[in-house]
Every structure is written in structure tokens, then in C-alpha cells.
Specification:
Elements lengths: L2 H13 L6 H19 L2 E4 L9 E3 L5 E12 L2 E10 L6 E5 L7 E4 L2 H14 L4
Antiparallel strand pairs: 1-6, 2-3, 2-6, 3-4, 4-5
Length: 129
């Protein structure tokens, strides 16, 4: 969930006691604009489990950095639900572990492998109710 989505949810919670729906409508419009801009730039928010080598991951500064490799984190032979992602940084590769409370989703520009992952997800999740 991104900041725009959180703003809409917070405005919706306050809406029940509000005299006007202007705040809620404004928050929804800002969310829609943000989503339009992201789509135009080829940027998407995905679950960390779907990040693939060749994607470009948005850093805190807003710049994008290449994903070198990803792997699932294990503890005592069991998957932890967290992922180790090696990112190419100016000073050399850096490994990060996600998801994190402040970063429940990854913001990426999809590479070739990432687009293939999206196709698999689409095929295997189609028809589910």
C-alpha cells in the first residue's frame, strides 16, 4: 500500500463524521493521478515475492537500481516470507531483506524476467474466484 492509498483510506475513515466529501474525493483523485503517472512511466507496485533479476527497484531517493538476484530467506529450513534482494548500487552490490513494515510492496520497473513472472502469475491465477 502506498502513501496515496493510505491517504484515501484515512479520508474514508474520517468521512463518516464529515460534513463534506471534498477531502475523500480529493484523495481519490490524487490516487488516480498517481496510478496514471506510474503506469505511463512503466512503474508498478508489486509484492516482494514477485521481484525478479533484471527489474529496476526504486530506492528511497526515487532513483531506480538494477536487481541482480533474489532469493527467499530461510530459517531452520523453513521459508520466512521475507526475500533477500541483491541490488546494484553505485558503490557496489547491496543486499536488502524485504518486506519491511515501512515497505510492504516493491516499486519497480519490470525487466524481461519480471514481465515473464507477471505472465505466469496471470496464467496460474486466472479463473480463481
Amino acid at each position: 500500500m502506498n502513501a496515496y492509498e493510505r491517504t484515501v483510506i484515512e479520508a474514508a475513515r474520517r468521512f463518516q463524521d464529515a460534513q463534506s466529501d471534498a477531502e475523500l474525493i480529493g484523495a481519490v483523485k490524487r490516487l488516480e493521478l498517481h496510478e496514471q503517472q506510474q503506469a505511463t512511466a512503466g512503474v508498478s507496485e508489486i509484492e516482494w515475492s514477485l521481484v525478479a533479476a533484471g527489474d529496476e527497484l526504486r530506492g528511497k531517493s526515487g532513483a531506480f537500481f538494477p536487481v541482480i538476484r533474489t532469493r527467499c530467506e530461510y530459517d531452520m529450513g523453513r521459508a520466512t516470507g521475507r526475500y533477500v534482494i541483491e541490488v546494484g548500487m553505485p558503490g557496489g552490490p547491496k543486499s536488502i531483506v524485504r518486506p519491511h513494515a515501512n515497505e510492504p510492496f516493491a516499486t519497480v520497473k519490470r525487466g524481461q524476467d519480471g514481465r515473464a513472472v507477471d505472465e505466469f502469475v496471470n496464467v496460474f491465477s486466472s479463473g480463481q474466484e
